[in-house]
Amino acid sequence: MKKILIANRGEIVERIIRTCSRLNIETVAVYSSADKDLPYVRQATKAYEIGDPPAAKSYLNQEVILKIAQEENVDAIHPGYGFLSENASFVRKVEEHGIAFIGPSADVVESMGDKITARKTMIEAGVPVVPGSSEIEDVTAAISYANEIGYPVMLKAAAGGGGIGMQRCENDEQLQKAFASSQNRAKAYFGNGAMFVEKFIDQARHIEVQIVGDKQGNLVHLYERDCSIQRRNQKVLEETPSPFISSETRARIGEAAKAAAEHVSYTNAGTVEFVMDQNENFYFLEMNTRLQVEHPITEETIGVDLVEWQLLVAEGRSLPLKQEDIMPTGHSIEFRLYAEDPSTFMPSPGKIETLHFPEMKNVRIDSGYESGSTVSPFYDPMIAKIIVNGSTRDEAIKIGQAFFERFSLTGIKQNSPLFAKLLAEEKFQQGNYSTAYLSENLTVKK
Amino acid sequence: MQEVKASMAGTVLNVMVAEGDSITSGQELVMLESMKMEIPIEGVEEGTVAEVNVAIGDFVNEGDVLVKIK
Question: Is this prediction's ipTM beyond 0.90?
Answer without folding.
Answer: no
